[in-house]
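Progress report, Aim 2. The chain analyzed during this reporting quarter is listed below.
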Amino acid sequence: MVPRRLTAVELCAGAGGMLIGMHAAGFEHLAAIEVDPKAAATLRRNVPGLNVIEADIRKVDFSPYQGVDVVVGGLPCQPYSIHGSRKGKDDDRELFLAGVRAVQRMKPRAFAFENVSGFAQVTHTRYRNVLIRLFRRVGYDVQLVQIDAQDWGVPQRRVRVIIVGIRKDQTSRLFALPRAPENFRLDIGSALQDLLQENGWDGAVQWADRRRHTHTLRGDKIDRGAVTPTLVGYSGTAPRNSAAAWEDVEINISRRPARAPTSKEATVPGFMPALTERMRARIQGFPDSWLFEGGLSHRDQQIANGFPPNAARAVGLGLFTALEGLEFDVDAVMRTPLLDHDIVKPRRKIVPAPPLAPGSDLAKPNIQVA
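Predicted structure tokens for the chain:
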């Protein structure tokens, strides 16, 4: 238990992956801002007392939240994704400058924005350095940290970059991810076996055992147990190289069934199980009780775009330690359930949603780069 809960405002909150993890790490959200109405509906459905602001972060007045402890979020990653056009700063979905403006207006003690690993590529070095200078100018020491979700109990290869800033007047100005617990890694067989058995597929146990006993090389170490490739939104087809990577773990990623397979379906030559919505959410690390709003494609996109909650919890523990000097028993904390009654029926400080800016001037940060 933390001695007191710190406050957070989340930008581009999506379906709530980071929100779940930050709450589990000891943070209360004063607001969650999300422009997509389907994702905003997901947040409201799962956390009825949450202050959800359905708006573009470039047009929000953040002044009611000045003094919040942390600002976090998953600013759109498509500009830097290897699956996208990789336009970077020239992509109209790029919102890092809006993130700078939000930090400048709220003046949090710290911030943490996650993005895909492509953000750290050499191609984006100049723009990355511009952002770091901007954050430093508004009073923050900045560092880039890499996190691999599979180290935090997520059965998926999902590497992300976290841009962390600590306000310069804080006693501790250094952020560090906690060390992942030993034997905390979760293989895809153990993660999905029960879901795959739901309709009587008698081969689910053998399928899961093969995943558990697969050894893979990652860097200079050997991991026991297979995890999946990075989950992306379902589009009805999958690129050939992506489909092949999923076939390596005996999953047909090109199908999107409504239910688990039956033993009869498994007799078809070349059969491989496909992923239901709940299986996809389980791979991403969402609790089974978390429900998604919208049509099929909207729900799958929300799941795929989410920041895995346990990875977010690790980031939250690092932020809490940096700000409060509190050392956690990380092994014990990470093995507790992500959800409790506090997040289902939140005892939160409710802050009225701020109005949208009356003009377009708030859409541009009041910052210049020499």
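Residues 186 and 263 are 26 Å apart (CA to CA). DSSP finds twelve helices and nine strands in the chain. These observations will guide the mutagenesis work planned for the next reporting period.
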